[in-house]
Amino acid sequence: MDVLDLPHLDRGPRSAPAIVLLHGFPLDHAMWAPQIRALEAAGFRVIAPDLRGMGKAPATKGPGSMALYAEDVLRLVDRAGVRRFALVGFSMGGYVAFEVARRAGDRLTGLALVDTRADPDTEEARRGRSATIEKVRAEGPRVLADAMLPKLLSPAAPPALVEQVRATILATRPEGAVFALEAMAARPGSLETLQKLARPVAVVVGERDEITPPTAARLMMQAAPSASFTIVPNAAHLTTLEAPDAVNDALVKWARMLTS
Ligand code: MLT
Which end of the chain is more exposed for a tag (fewer CB within 10 A), N or C? Predict the structure, then answer.
């Protein structure tokens, strides 16, 4: 298996409890900028990689699988000298976090699930991913920007933020996007994984998230009834940048409950 060394940010004291932030599709670690600042200020070590094929991480040929993303994350923490860590997964990063939990659940100190879901793709969603793969191969990441921007951010988002996110999407290599789409379509359901995880869990979702809506977040809450639950008013999918204060508050509260 060709496990990669992921480019990443590593902030805060090396001896502090570690929190690893996994970004969504087709984005990179910069979507966590406000949370990196807040968690570091709260005293944690924060590690934020670019996942393979996105940001500055090399793209590899498929078939895409959550297994490879998860093994990349495990290599990252091993190389950082971190044995136990908490994971924060946004959307596709949440799918990767569930895969890490299946492979190395004993190493997790907690799990925060931000605008993500634990149920797998429906057949219709899988067909949609196949169609998107064809379009990305033919026309490049512009099709992703056109389709996703209206769902990532609400109409009230500042134009500069919309342009920042558009630029990130346009910089995605087609091979990296195809790998991610294949991996997302093939991912298993994770409600059982969540049910079995006896660690502090936080669920955060934008009130207007159409990609991973509050109904999907409620399913996760049923699987982890003791989790903290935050609905971010008026925000769409990319809450970390659109409503950073609300997300920071939820994550810092959760991080203070982490088991060591
Ligand atoms: C993401 O935001 O990471 C993806 O859009 C999630 C998905 O397509 O399921």
Answer: C
Residue 95 near ligand 1, beta carbon < 6 Å: no
Q: What are phi and psi of 2, to 5 degrees?
A: -90, 80
Share of the chain above pLDDT 90, in %: 98
Question: Counting atoms of ligand 1 from 1, which one is nearest the CA of 24?
Answer: 3
Which amino acid belongs to residue 230?
A: T
Angle 66-69-75 from CA coordinates, rounded to 5°: 140
Residue-averaged pLDDT of the chain? 97
Choose one of 51, 69, 211 to mutate for the ligand 1 pocket test, by most ligand atoms within 8 angstroms of C-beta: 211
Query: Please, which pLDDT band fits residue 1 given cuts at 50, 70 and 90?
Result: low
Query: What is the 25 CA–ligand 1 centroid distance (Å)?
Result: 5
- Is the pLDDT confidence value at 260 over 70? no
Instruction: Determine the Cα angle at 190 with ends 30 and 51, to 5°.
Output: 25
Q: Report the pLDDT value the prediction gives residue 51, as an integer from 0 to 100.
A: 98
- The SS3 of residue 90 is strand
- The amino acid present at 72, given as its one-letter code, is D
